[in-house]
Design goal:
alpha+beta; 5-stranded mixed beta sheet; elongated
Length: about 140
Amino acid sequence: MDLSRPPQIITIDETVPFELEPVNIHSRNWLGKNTVEIRINAKNGELSETIRETIQAKVANLPRLFNRTTGIQVLADLKNSANPKVEIIISAEETNDFFASNTGANVLAALDLTISKMEQQLRKHKEKLTEHRGHPKNSHEIE
């Protein structure tokens, strides 16, 4: 195995009916550096560059809650413009994907509500992992 070159990643998204825009930020990769792929997708409409940058900045903070995060996908469904829906899917090492969605008065309001749900899920999962490291919850009660 040649470790001098990064592994080749092949992505096939030609049949997807909406725009995909991968963005890399820092998280952990095979060389010990941190990379998380963030994809921001708009369905049934387009997002302005300002909104895309805001979404990227807000979801870029999610890996701090769970350091095994490998990818974040944000899907903004603009079918109902008065009540857009935002979905976030987080992929992480050695666990199932995390999923949260919500609607709001606009895309950013829906994003804030969805991020709040996702943060709660990530905190709960991290608590489960740290509580089950061989230490009973109530170790002072066992004699």
